[in-house]
Write a structure and sequence with these properties.
Layout (H helix, E strand, L loop, with lengths): L6 H14 L7 H8 L3 H13 L3 E3 L5 E3 L2 H28 L2 E8 L2 E8 L15 E3 L4 H11 L8 E4 L6 E7 L8 E8 L5 H18 L1
Antiparallel strand pairs: 1-2, 3-4, 3-8, 4-5, 6-7, 7-8
């Protein structure tokens, strides 16, 4: 720790990160061990974070991430959307299909940014705010593929008719962006995705990832 940083704030943020990395919560003793501080310090940190709804404790005393984190997370979406729009516009115009940025929201895929092409006679109507299960549609499947191979480039994912009859999708995950789990893709009214689309989607996903780093 340098003189310009806050040790208490640092510890509080470390608590949130530790809790975010577990599905079953952590006890005060477990947090004390992981942080290398005594239990009294952990109690004080948890009490402060609870006041801001960033942490909650269940009946068994295990600490978990609180709903206040979701409120903070919602404010991130506009920033992510703004950073992604240039790459999405270029992708939509180049391919002639609706381009989208999709992020994980719990167990669902949530479209947070959508750009439709300006020059096509028709295209798929796809709206920001649209949700679907992670295991359906190219956007969600691309994210799941990245989870399964976090150290590798999972490439792109193709689907047909999983979310809308007659529509095909192509998506590639965002790779190397800390704290953001999502994908970039296109959806088009076609029975199959042209070969060049997959490579172009991969390129757009890399552009968005670079913009978010």
């Amino acid at each position: 720790m340098t003189a310009e940083t806050s040790q208490t704030l640092d510890r509080g943020l470390r608590v949130l990160k530790l809790l975010a990395d577990t599905d079953h919560g952590l006890t005060v003793t477990e947090l004390s061990t992981k942080l290398g501080v005594n239990r009294t310090v952990v109690y004080r940190l948890l009490a402060t974070l609870e006041q801001h709804a960033l942490v909650r404790r269940d009946l068994g005393g295990r600490a978990r991430v609180g709903l206040g984190v979701l409120r903070l997370g919602r404010q991130v979406h506009p920033l992510v959307r703004e950073a992604a729009l240039p790459a999405l516009r270029s992708l939509a115009e180049d391919i002639g299909a609706t381009a989208h940025l999709t992020l994980v929201d719990g167990t669902e895929a949530l479209a947070v940014a959508v750009v439709e092409p300006t020059w096509t006679d028709y295209h798929v109507a796809y709206r920001a705010g649209f949700r679907h299960p992670l295991d359906r549609g190219a956007a969600g499947r691309a994210i799941l593929a990245a989870r399964q191979s976090p150290s590798l480039d999972p490439g792109y994912t193709l689907t047909h008719g999983e979310l809308e009859a007659g529509a095909s999708g192509a998506a590639a995950p965002l790779v190397g962006v800390s704290g953001v789990e999502g994908s970039v893709g296109v959806v088009m009214l076609t029975d199959s995705v042209p070969e060049r689309v997959g490579a172009r989607v991969l390129e757009a996903a890399r552009e968005v990832a670079d913009a978010l780093r």
